[in-house]
Amino acid sequence: MKANIVFLKNLFWEVSGKGLNIASVFIINFVLANYLGPDLFGSYSYIITFSSIFLFISEFGLERIEIRETVNGKKIIDSSLLIRLIMSLISYLILIVIVTLIENNAQTILLIKVFAVSNFATVGYVFRNFFLGKFKNIYSTIALNSKDVFSVITKVILIANGASLETLIYFSIIDFFIESIVLFVIFRIRFSDYKLSFQFKEVKFLINKSFPLIVSGLLILAYKKFDLLIINYYLSDFETGIYSSAQKISNAILMGTTVVLMVYGPVLNKSINTESYKRKRMMFLETIISITIVLSIPIYLFAEQIIGLVFSVEYAPSIHPFKILVIKNVFEAIFLASGYII
Q: Does the predicted TM-score (pTM) go above 0.85?
């Protein structure tokens, strides 16, 4: 009974938190897309995507392991922080070399280098995963929504004052650090008795467990990032803006999948050595796939109306890629669910 209450509380906080997150992302992209137009919105999306191209190196496959080990009672925060910090520095240096070799536009190169600094904020996600492993989803939700509120307010103010593309990108960097700072502050307040004590054996343990996931991280990178980069390389900023506008909305559908992963995942971890594990594992898969399908069907059927409602007439060509991306989400949900179990 107690476990069910904890589950329902976490479900409430994840749903409410992700609901506000979806709303804020929707508002921001709606306002930005219509303010900038397809060409500049394409440039904006390209810079953001390129800047995060090596984010999988920064995260080093640690997210699921951090949650799992926290559920199992291990203290790995300090070791995870060290690994994430070092890998973030390495990924940033790699990015600088790659963007200098590939990109020709000096202004674009500068903006990518500047925005890529936001990848260092992922170091703070150690605390988010700690909260999830402790079944304290309320704290990760507070941090995420603090970022959302700040992002919406600043974007609206900047656009109202006619901000340039560069100014919008500079302020977007702050969004990521807001979340990490709030995560750290909550950790220090609510878990003040938690003593950080660095142990080399824990670093070695985490590297051994997470290193194989770098390969899958590279494949996920190719799957989730390269489409927009290829469109920009072979076509134009306009086509990138059209595709990105469709992608932003379709990604919102996967938030339902994320909620189930964040809430039910730790519960599944805790039951892995019990007789009920196989039943819970199947329920986990079925729930994620069902939610995605239920959300996708009406969105696919009313794709034209949704695009027409959200974006200006310039974005009419995004209807067709939007429909394709909605279908793709069903398969991505299966991929996320099975990947979590593995």
A: no
